[in-house]
Structure formats: structure tokens, C-alpha cells
Design goal:
With 784 residues, the chain is α+β, with helices and mostly antiparallel strands. It contains 18 helices and 33 strands.
């Protein structure tokens, strides 16, 4: 079987059978292509056995972008390449195809027009063949992620003033563009600009040294050179990749634009040698590592994706490495858009460099979300995840940030300030109240649509939303970038805002703390009276510290508001994640927002969907570690071996079965006491032991009785019943009962039931608008 990366939509067994899959080779036929016969070229074609099949190799045929597509012609036994004529939209393109040295008939189609293109393969002398419709989209995007947000400021060579005028308003301001790093400015409104290449080499003097494959530091292996001044072979070190191919140690970094963002591709590349997608240079081992960026913020600027492209583990083995602005969570909080960008950049890479054997990814914090969510939105884009200080996804994480913000407000009121630190920690579910305070300090502001910096530093404040002064201004929250997927609502102030799912009607904050005796019945009642909620402008409903609103109103959202979050995969999907090995790099970092319970939350989703979490492994440490540490290297190497074993598994079993069967013996929960650079430190002290220090704390909503999976935005309700075992016999006075009834007018959460609107994931396109439409089955070629 040819090994190539595939996007497989596993909604249900029936859906799979119906062909709901996308792949970097997803258009028609099986995975094997019989080698073409030699000969042909005249007379009557030989009698062929089996169908002739056309396949796009870099993406599914209805999601091609940028005008080109790598295509294979799978010939039936007895037919040669010379026996077939190929036409694109009625024009002969046979010359673009040939029987390549790899034994396959392949060609790169260029000049695809926008929209549908008909590729036809006809057996010469016969009215028989195959046809495939290829749908081409622009390099700017909107293939399935929805309309791009506006305004958007293109990067330039020099960083120059740009006028920013939101459509449909009379507002206007000036922003300074980001530096693109390119030799030319954008040529269109989608910020597309000519691609830039940079070249590096390892000097012969550093061959065999302990240098790292990076640039700009004292121990760097790589030095830059000009494209027209390639060093002499004698001055270049030899490089041997993990499959034993030895080449000159020459690296090329491609910087380009895609989907209005920017991307980079680094690979071993000798400009003096030919490279075609069917015959890549040998320095590349055919594998790919995608580097995901951390944090979370809003952004309206095109900018460079950063220098994480130089990954020593990956480059040393011969991988190509990729990063992208739109897979940097600091720049983009819309993971559906990130998924589309991965698909587009990966297609470009395959069209240019060749088919990918498998794609690994890594990234911590927000970079973990940029792995789990795309793996849920479009299974098969990423084949193995290395998630550091991880979260299952962003949208469910915002529940904890918001509730920590609400609790932090409450703790400033007279009733809240009377709570001890121990009681607050019990209500929060954290080891101390500091954790919630850090959440509030760091990630409440990014959700505020009124802050210009949430649109990027230097965004003009005079065009930003203000509910009184500029109600039609640009909303700059991290949630507003999701509106192409989730849609909008008209709020009570008649202003259009994102259709968010964050509902806390019926949530009994501190319920487990009450059961454990960490807070009194009166403290429980006062907490639920005063905790309140945030509105769509991030205004707290609890009044102020000196004049609290009692009871503070709770958030009640539409029962359908959360549907696109579930359906799209923005809430990570345990069923889809079973298709990928996951190595979760999980440190314990002290008073910090990256608590270990998030890893257990991911496991809860896997357990619920698949009856187990054998594909999820945790590597722990008492301190943080990165790619350059011994534990980081261990994770990389284990994942590489895991995916290589899956690659060699030729069985017809489903992907999840292959993931479990081919798991390396050392891919088990593992923890070290300290994180350093030497393998001598890789001594397992026992995951969860005191020396490991990784502890499964909880969130405020889990303390309220919510599921460990933390994937219910709006709970179903049940009547408030003071005789319920929920309260452990707590003696509420009649006055306290009356106060709680005033808070929970509709009832309290019934956590034994699924969440309201908790819809199953389905392959969905948002091209036609928010809410989405079902994505059709992968198009295949048809015989005639």
C-alpha cells in the first residue's frame, strides 16, 4: 500500500461506508496502483483489465486550491501510459503526465480555473475512460471555514501606514502593517505575495559536532548563504537522515502566504539538484512535523509565523517542518480556520515537494488546542499529536476562564471576601485561589470586544466597538473571530454579537465543597446568589464589590447556540481523536493555569466515545520541559516509531485498531522528577507519585457536579429539591431555601443527562454561512 496522509471523516460506520473521507490522495480508487506496463504508443491499445481511475493526491478533489493539483492516473492491468489521452476542460494535458521512476503515472495539473474543472482520461482508440471533477478555490481560502473576518491588515515589506475602514460604517483609522519578510508586497486583497526562500548550510567543520539544527545561537549548526552563492561541496557537511540517505547538509526555508496568513516550510534542499513531487530529493524522509503556536488572542494583522520552524529533533531525522500564522493560537482563535489552513498548506507542500508519509505535530498550551481541534474537525490531516501543558480545546476552556473571572469578582464582595483561602480553593477546584486569579488576570481581557489590542497591537482604537460610542465598531474579542462558524445574535441592546454557548443557569457552584464540608450552607447560598455571569460584552452581572447585585443574573443562551460548536469539532471529539496517537507532555508548574486535570478531561472524552484511552499517553515531570529536553526527545522518538509501525500495518482494520496495536512498549504513562537535557534523567518515578507531583485537580464547573469531560455548555435542568442526596443532608433554613429558589427559578443542573444541544460531530462546511451544511462525500472518478 502506498503510504500517504489521509483525512478520514468517521461520523458513523454508515458514513464511512458512504465515502465520507478526505485525503491527501482522497479522490477515487484504492491505495494501491498497479505499475504501468511499458510499451504502447501506437496501434490498437491492449485489452485492459479493471477500471481506469483518476486521483488527486494532495487533497480531495472538491477542495483543491491555488490552481494546481498533483494527480495520479491508475491504469488497469494491460494498459500503458502512452495508451491514454488526458484532457482538462477540453484541452490536451497528456504531456503533463508520464510513467515516473516510482512506477506510477503522475502529473501536476496547473492553471485550474476557479470553480469546477473536468479532467478526462480516454483510452486511445476507444470511447472508454474516466472523468473527475476538480473544484479549485483561490489561495485566499474560504473552502469550508466560512467567510474571512474583516477588516484584515496585510503585511508589507517595510511596515507602512494602512487605512482601516470597517465595511458598513463611517469609521476609519490608521494602523502600521507588520513586516512580511518578503521581497514584494501583497498583490491582492487576500494578502497574497510572491514566495520568499532562504538558504542555510552546515559547514564541514561542524560535521559530527553537538550543534543543533537551528540558526542564530552559539551552538547552531546552520549558517545562511545566498541563493546564487551555494557553498562548494567540500565546504558543506554531509547529512544522513533516519532512513540512511546521505546528502549535503543544505536547508531551504520557504516563506509564503496562504489563506491571508503566512506559513513556512523547511526541508533539506540542494538548489543544485532537481526536485519534483514524484521524485523528491533524498534528504527529506517524507515525514512532516507541524509546529503549533501557544497562547490565545484576537488578531486582525497578517504576520510571520515565527522561527519555531527550526526543530532539532525533526530536522536531524530528515523531516520537513512547517508552521503557520493561522496555527499559532496567539494569532488565531478559530481552529476551524486553522484546520482549513493546514489542509491548504499541506496540499501546496504535496504539490511542490511530494507525498507525505505521515504528519506529526507538537505545541504546548494553545498549541495543544491547535492539534486536538483540527484532528477533530478533519481527521487525517494530523497523524500523531504531541500536546504539551494541554487542553482538549479552546471553547470549553473558556468556561473555566469565565467562571474564574466571575468567582474573582465575587470574592471582592462582602460575602465573598469572608471566604477563607481554603474555602475558595475548594469552590474553584484548584490547589489554591491563586490559580483562578491567574486565569482572570490573563484570559478575561482577550474575551473583551472593547479592547483594541485584542485585534492586535497598534490596531486603531477609534474604530473599535464601544456599546455607547461605536456600536457598529470592530469587535476585538477572541470569540468574534468565530462568527463565520457559530453565527451571530442580536442582543437586547440591538447590537449584533457572537452567538456564544456559555450558559450557567442551574449551575450550583461549590456543590462538592458543600458536600465535603469545606463551605457552610450559608456560604453556598451566598456564593450562588452572588457569582452571576458575563454578558456578551464581558460585563459581570454581579454589580460591584461595594454594591453587589443579589441575586446576580445567570446567563441563559439559546438551546441551539452550542450546536455548531459540537457539530464542527470545535469541541474536540473523542471518536475522531481515537484515530491518532497522542503523547501528552504534562508537567506540574505550581500556581499556573495549566493544571493536569485537563489531560484527564481529554481521557474522559476518549473513554466516553471509545470505551478506553489506550491511544493517549502522558509523560510527566515536576517542571516544564520543551523540545530540547530529554523528555521532549523521548516523546518525539516514541511518536515517530508509533507512526512508522502504523505505516507498516497493511491490515484492513480501522485506524483506531491500528493505533492501539502498534503502540510502542515505552509509550506508557511516565514521569521524571526533573526536566533536563540528558537521557540520564529519564528515570520513571511513577506517574502521580509525590516525586512526579502531577495532580488531577478540578474546575469550578466540575466542583458544581459537572462532568470531568467539561464539554457541557448548557445543562438540562431538574427541580430544586432540598431532600436530594446532592446536598448530603445540609441543613438549609427556610430563608436559605427561599433565596436559592430565587437563584434557581427554573431548577438546577441534572448532570446525569447530556447537555442541551450536545449534537454529534458531522463533516460540515461553513462556506455557505454560519451553522454549516453537510460536507458531501469525497468525489471519485467515474468510468465511461
Amino acid at each position: 500500500m502506498r503510504v500517504q496522509s489521509r483525512f478520514i471523516f468517521h461520523a458513523t460506520a454508515a458514513a464511512v461506508a458512504a465515502g465520507l473521507l478526505v485525503g491527501c490522495g482522497g479522490s477515487g480508487g484504492g491505495d494501491t496502483a498497479p505499475p504501468p506496463t511499458t510499451g504502447g504508443g501506437g496501434g490498437t491499445p491492449p485489452v485492459a483489465s479493471g477500471p481506469l481511475v483518476l486521483k488527486t493526491l494532495s487533497n480531495r478533489a472538491d477542495m483543491i486550491s491555488d490552481g494546481d493539483a498533483l494527480v495520479e492516473v491508475v491504469l488497469p492491468t494491460g494498459l500503458a501510459a502512452a495508451d491514454v489521452r488526458l484532457d482538462l476542460n477540453g484541452s490536451d494535458v497528456t504531456g503533463a503526465f508520464a510513467a515516473r521512476d516510482n512506477g506510477r503515472v503522475m502529473g501536476l495539473l496547473t492553471g485550474l480555473r476557479s470553480g469546477e474543472n473536468l479532467l478526462t482520461a480516454t483510452v486511445k482508440g476507444k470511447a472508454a475512460g474516466a472523468r473527475l471533477t476538480i473544484t479549485n478555490f483561490s489561495r485566499g481560502g474560504n473552502i469550508f471555514a466560512g467567510a474571512p473576518i474583516q477588516p484584515w491588515v496585510c503585511a508589507t515589506r517595510t511596515g507602512s501606514p494602512a487605512t482601516v475602514s470597517p465595511a458598513g460604517t463611517n469609521l476609519s483609522g490608521t494602523a502600521t502593517t507588520r513586516l512580511s519578510g518578503l521581497d514584494a508586497d501583497a498583490v491582492d486583497a487576500d494578502c497574497n505575495a510572491p514566495t520568499q526562500y532562504s538558504y542555510y548550510y552546515q559547514p564541514k567543520a561542524k560535521e559530527g559536532s553537538a550543534c543543533t539544527f537551528t540558526v542564530g545561537d552559539p551552538n547552531a549548526c546552520l549558517l545562511p548563504y545566498a541563493a546564487n552563492a551555494r557553498p562548494k561541496d567540500a565546504d558543506i557537511a554531509d547529512f544522513t537522515n533516519d532512513r540512511g540517505d546521505t546528502v549535503k547538509a543544505l536547508l531551504r526555508v520557504e516563506l509564503g502566504t496562504m489563506g491571508r496568513g503566512m506559513y513556512q516550510i523547511a526541508t533539506w534542499f540542494d538548489p543544485a539538484q532537481p526536485w519534483t513531487p514524484w521524485a523528491p530529493q533524498k534528504g527529506w524522509n517524507g515525514k512532516l512535523l507541524w509546529k503549533m503556536g501557544a497562547s490565545a488572542s484576537g488578531n486582525r494583522f497578517q504576520q510571520q509565523p515565527g522561527n519555531a520552524i527550526f526543530d532539532d529533533n525533526a530536522l536531524r531525522a530528515g523531516f520537513a517542518t512547517v508552521n503557520s500564522q493561522l496555527t499559532n493560537h496567539q494569532d488565531n482563535n478559530n481552529e476551524v480556520l486553522a484546520t482549513e489552513n493546514i489542509m491548504m498548506v499541506k496540499e501546496h507542500l504535496i504539490d511542490t515537494y511530494g507525498e507525505v508519509r505521515y504528519t506529526m505535530s507538537d505545541g504546548g498550551s494553545g498549541g495543544s488546542m491547535m492539534q486536538t481541534v483540527p484532528a477533530s474537525v478533519m481527521p487525517g490531516l494530523l497523524d500523531g499529536l504531541q500536546t504539551g501543558v494541554s487542553y482538549p480545546d479552546a471553547v470549553s476552556t473558556w468556561m473555566e476562564t469565565r467562571e474564574c473571572g466571575m468567582l474573582t469578582h465575587y470574592y471582592t464582595t462582602p460575602a465573598g471576601s469572608a471566604l477563607s483561602d481554603t474555602a475558595r480553593a475548594a469552590v474553584n477546584g484548584h490547589p489554591s485561589p491563586v490559580h483562578c486569579f491567574i486565569w482572570s488576570l490573563s484570559f478575561i481581557n482577550p474575551q473583551d470586544p472593547k479592547l483594541p489590542d485584542n485585534c492586535g497591537s497598534g490596531f486603531p482604537a477609534g474604530i473599535v466597538y464601544d456599546p455607547r460610542l461605536r456600536p457598529t465598531g470592530v469587535r476585538c474579542s477572541i470569540h468574534d473571530v468565530l462568527t463565520p462558524v457559530i453565527g451571530t445574535v442580536t442582543d437586547t441592546d440591538r447590537t449584533v454579537k457572537p452567538n456564544l454557548p456559555y450558559d450557567n443557569a442551574g449551575v450550583q457552584y461549590g456543590l462538592k465543597a458543600l458536600q465535603a464540608g469545606a463551605i457552610t450552607p450559608e456560604e453556598f447560598v451566598a456564593l450562588n446568589e452572588g457569582v452571576g455571569s458575563y454578558d456578551l460584552d464581558m460585563v459581570w452581572s454581579g454589580g460591584s464589590a461595594l454594591a453587589p447585585t443579589i441575586p446576580a443574573p445567570r446567563a441563559r443562551v439559546s438551546p441551539t447556540a452550542m450546536v455548531p460548536f459540537y457539530k464542527s469539532g470545535l469541541v474536540s471529539v473523542g471518536q475522531n481523536l481515537a484515530q491518532v496517537p497522542i503523547i501528552d507532555l504534562r508537567p506540574e508548574m505550581g500556581p499556573d493555569i495549566h493544571m493536569a486535570w485537563r489531560s484527564y478531561s481529554q481521557r474522559a472524552r476518549l473513554d466516553a466515545a471509545n470505551g478506553g484511552h489506550g491511544n493517549h499517553v502522558m509523560f510527566g515531570s515536576a517542571s516544564y520541559y520543551g523540545d530540547g529536553t530529554a523528555l521532549g526527545r523521548k516523546a518525539f522518538r516514541a511518536m515517530d516509531r508509533w507512526l512508522a509501525a502504523i505505516e507498516q500495518d497493511k491490515s484492513a482494520d480501522a485506524r483506531p485498531a491500528k493505533v492501539l496495536r502498534n503502540k510502542p512498549r515505552d509509550a506508557v504513562d511516565f514521569c521524571i522528577a526533573t526536566a533536563g537535557t540528558t537521557d540520564a534523567e529519564l528515570v520513571d518515578v511513577g506517574f502521580g507519585s509525590a516525586a512526579c507531583a502531577v495532580k488531577p485537580y478540578e474546575s469550578p464547573r466540575i466542583v458544581s457536579g459537572g462532568p470531568l469531560s467539561e464539554d457541557v455548555f448548557k445543562c438540562q435542568l431538574k427541580p430544586l429539591d432540598f431532600a436530594s442526596a446532592d446536598y448530603g443532608g445540609a441543613p438549609f433554613t427556610s430563608g436559605q431555601q427561599t433565596r436559592l429558589r430565587a437563584v434557581f427559578t427554573d431548577g438546577v443542573c441534572d448532570w446525569n443527562k447530556p447537555g442541551v444541544g450536545q449534537t454529534a460531530w458531522a463533516p460540515t462546511s461553513f462556506r455557505a454561512g454560519p451553522g454549516g451544511q453537510p460536507l458531501p462525500a469525497v468525489p471519485t472518478s467515474t468510468s465511461f
